[in-house]
Design a protein that fits this description.
Blueprint: H1 6-21, H2 31-62, H3 76-85, H4 91-101, H5 106-117, H6 123-126, H7 153-176
Length: 177
């Protein structure tokens, strides 16, 4: 039986690659060009995140975990819990969990960038306000969330290569069994 998520992973990785290979817009000083470049980078990040999420679902499908479409695991930890609840073991899933928990991994950078896309502009500055909405004298900074690196084509290509290598390697290892 074929895995319905395999095509989604490949499609999202290819789309990210195509977006990142698109010609660089003209001078960044022009606000339209800068906005276009930002939109392309965010689109590439969205495709990378989509590929990662589809890969989690692909792994779950390979392990026959029995979740239905729309109820796929959102994180590597959620996938690992499903694996454990079914009395199974997967080195590939354990690797995904380790990758997601390693603060030095490429995945942590990609995840931080993804999460930053969903925070309203100015949210970081708003964190230094007290509960009553009054500016505190000492700025508060959330230490458990590192500020993401600014998006760039080079950084996104690095994440694309890392995710693609992970997918290819884990698929090859899965086929050995």
């Amino acid at each position: 039986m074929s895995n319905p998520y395999t095509g989604s992973v490949a499609s999202a990785l290819r789309k990210a690659q195509l977006i990142l290979q698109a010609p660089v817009p003209g001078e960044a000083a022009d606000s339209q060009q800068a906005l276009l470049e930002s939109a392309l980078q965010e689109a590439a990040l969205m495709q990378l995140w989509r590929a990662y999420k589809a890969f989690l679902a692909e792994q779950g499908q390979q392990l026959q975990l029995g979740f239905r479409a729309g109820a796929e695991p959102d994180t590597a930890q959620a996938l690992a819990q499903l694996v454990s609840a079914r009395g199974k073991f997967s080195a590939e899933v354990n690797e995904l969990v380790s990758l997601s928990e390693n603060p030095e991994s490429w995945f942590q950078g990609m995840q931080a960038a993804w999460e930053a896309l969903w925070r309203p502009a100015g949210t970081e500055a708003a964190q230094s306000e007290g509960a009553a909405g009054v500016q505190t004298l000492i700025p508060v900074q959330q230490l458990d969330r590192a500020a993401p690196e600014p998006l760039s084509r080079d950084l996104l290509m690095k994440w694309l290569r890392a995710l693609n290598e992970l997918v290819v390697r884990q698929r090859a290892h899965g086929q050995e069994w």
